[in-house]
């Protein structure tokens, strides 16, 4: 038996329940992982509320780190005692331990702590595929990034600085603005008192930016479009304020813009690609270009409180659960 968070209906944080569940032994191609840190991501809220439907009852959570306790038949590149993390596979990371497909496990190199890995696997690989694959940034580029003080945002600040790109970040408070600047964000827009598109035009001498990375969604859609250059790109990588509904004619009117809604699974598979991405992320950490530790820690049994903090935008940086 092991403790795990499950939910039987969609709704608010109160639907998350701590239970004792059967664990068992890994079967063919599987491994049993005992978690040390469990990442809390905004996508978990999408599953909890039903925005992303799941069969119920179900577990919740996309990524965690820990140690391999046992492997099933046919598993050759993962061994008991290995430190690993994951970001793909079935929901259910909010647990003390679980059985996982071995082919989604990512070995954690020496020199990267479990706490750092818990903040960097999903969030760092998100920054990697946004900046290196979806719309590859290069030295000298100026771009707009929403939620610059969030878990992915703080890694994005550092990655942009390492690339020599100029990041214009949005935050909700002056306190978050200071955190974003400290992590390498060149220009910070405080959305509670500044007009996003107007400030972007001021910063870029009226030109706008070639790309906007927008994880907020509904509330920032028009500001994102109005910040883009002609033939610019809107990378809609999240909907924390609500879903994005857009008329394709609006993209034409705003300057023949293009828009993409990327998903990690289409960039991090097959396994060789996932490991290649992880190698680059861990390399950024080991070289000192990116530093990341959890800013908020909650016990596993307080998963609902962690969701409340994340939804209220009371958090800065990464949030983890400790089993």
TrEMBL record:
Gene3D superfamilies (alphabetical): Medium-chain alcohol dehydrogenases, catalytic domain (3.90.180.10), NAD(P)-binding Rossmann-like Domain (3.40.50.720)
InterPro entries: ADH-like_C, ADH-like_N, ER, GroES-like_sf, NAD(P)-bd_dom_sf, QOR-like, Quin_OxRdtase/zeta-crystal_CS
Alphabetic keyword roster: NADP, Oxidoreductase
Keyword NADP: yes
Enoyl reductase (ER) domain location: 11-321
The UniProt record lists the keyword DNA-binding: no
Cited NCBIfam families: PRK10754.1
Alphabetized PANTHER family for the sequence: QUINONE OXIDOREDUCTASE PIG3-RELATED, QUINONE OXIDOREDUCTASE-RELATED
Protein's name in the database: Quinone oxidoreductase family protein
Organism: Acidimangrovimonas pyrenivorans
